[in-house]
Amino acid sequence: RVNNSAKMRFRFYGDQDCPDWLLAEIALLTRVSSVKMKILAGNVVKDILGNPIDYAKFEQLTTDAKFEHSDLKAFIACVNHLLCSATKHDVDAETLSNELQQLGLPKEHATAICKCYGDNAAALREALRARSLRLWSLEQADWKVDYILSSSCLKTVAAPSVSLRLAVREGESTKQHTLEMDAGTLGTLISELKQAHAIMASFAPQA
Fold first, then answer.
1. Contact at 8 Å (CB) between 35 and 60?
2. For residues 147-181, b (16+ Cβ closer than 10 Å) or e, as one string?
3. What is d(CA 146, CA 181) in angstroms, rounded to the nearest whole number?
4. Is residue 176 classed as helix, strand or coil in its secondary structure?
């Protein structure tokens, strides 16, 4: 293990130091064989992609390591964190393998983890992108344009009015939202949405 790891920077961690808890858990990963590591890491990948961890299977595979329940949870959290961080920073499998070895993980174990990572990199990116910063999701959007001929509340008549109806998924329920705006406000909204989209696209990893 590298003694000055606290002073190093790692690409899979955004060119930052690794947190102390992650460094401490590296030794825990070495308590299973590299063959079992590949199987376990594969199950963690499935968990990230939406298939819950089978803890009974994990306990069976780690019997030789004599894990306590807290060790098992720490093991899963560590591998999950490694995979998600590497995905977030768009690191290739070879670089991740080299950096894990710098942290003290045996080459065979690093290769096992990175095999699962490399084989599922695209799916992991999509999974993390889908849930990143998403507090709600838009399920349906409808719109219509009304032409106002006269109104006691408006100074300008014969003007178009845009109505947006949005079905928004919030947790377990779907709520309906209706927005009314004139042409000028709609133009401003479209312009600002385009700017927001361009900013978000600039942070997306290049294919």
1. no
2. eeeeeeeeeeeeeebbeeeeeeeeeeeeeeeeeee
3. 10
4. strand
Residue 107's CB is within 10 A of a number of other CB atoms, namely 12
3-state secondary structure of 23: helix
Q: Render each residue's pLDDT in the chain as its tens digit; 207 residues.
A: 444 444 688 999 888 888 888 888 898 999 999 999 999 999 999 999 989 888 888 889 898 888 888 889 899 999 999 999 999 999 999 999 999 999 999 999 999 999 999 999 999 999 888 776 555 677 888 888 876 665 555 555 566 778 888 888 776 678 888 887 777 788 888 888 888 888 877 766 555
At 148, give phi and psi (nearest 5°). -80, 120
Q: Are 112 and 97 in contact (CB under 8 A)?
A: no
